[in-house]
Amino acid sequence: MLYSLSPTSDKAEIIGSLGFSLELLDVIHRINFLRDNLPRRTYTTEFDDLEAQLLRLTQHANIEKFSKDQDQIARILSTAEFYRIAALIYLLRVIPGPENAKRRSSYVIQGFEVLRSLPICTSPWPLFVLACETQSDEQRIEILHTLDQMDQNRKIGNVFVIRNIIETLWKQQDLQADVDNSKFKWWETGALNSNTPWFI
């Protein structure tokens, strides 16, 4: 028997304060768990389940809670999609595999497409994940331009901190240019060893 979830119990509904759904938040939490427990276990089944869940996840906005302005609704949906794609990139980075690099690259392209559709990016976490996967100087410039826009519009200290972390990570990646990039784990680098703020 099929049930129609009420807005209060619908985990795919976009939460305004987060910018994405509770279902996606749960997936990110589970990816963090896998990351923190590697390489003590293999997670083939969990990986497949998480990827499948992310691929079929359709987040939606409750228009009764938001303005009926179509531009605002489009921005809300695009922001949630940006988070979903970032979670896919993150998953494929946490669980490396012979086929994951190519798939991750395709998600990076999708991530930039969504980023370009946003008038202003207001979400540091997906931007950070995307920045860690840049594949060209042009993409890096685009990330820096987005950070400049965020700084001008959000006026919060996090943007400066995030920019410094990203630029430090890029320098480390450049120094390891001859190393297999598929094994790069940005969460283990020195740039994140200081007391940096958690950001969503």
Name a few traits of the molecule.
single chain; 200 residues; mainly alpha; two-stranded antiparallel ribbon; 2 strands; 58% helix; globular; disordered N terminus; nucleus; Fun_TF
Summarize the structure.
Helix 2 (44-56) runs antiparallel to helix 3 (70-94). The protein is mainly α and 200 residues long. The N and C termini lie far apart (36 Å).
Structural summary, described in words:
The structure is a single chain. The protein is mainly alpha-helical and 200 residues long. The chain has one domain. 58% of the residues lie in helices and 2% in strands. The chain contains seven helices and two strands, in the order ββααααααα. The protein has a two-stranded antiparallel ribbon. The longest helix is centred in the middle third of the chain and has 25 residues. The protein is globular. The relative contact order is 0.10.
Q: Compute the number of strand runs.
A: 2
**Could you spell the SSE succession in H and E letters?**
EEHHHHHHH
Major beta-sheet overview: 2 strands, antiparallel
Rounded radius of gyration (Å): 17 Å
Report the helical percentage.
55-70%
Strand content: under 5%
Unreliable sequence segments: 1-8
Please tell me the overall pLDDT.
Answer: 83
Strand order of the largest sheet: 1-2
Supply the number of helical segments.
Answer: 7
- Write down the overall geometry: globular
How many domains?
Answer: 1
End-to-end distance = 36 Å
Structural class: mainly alpha
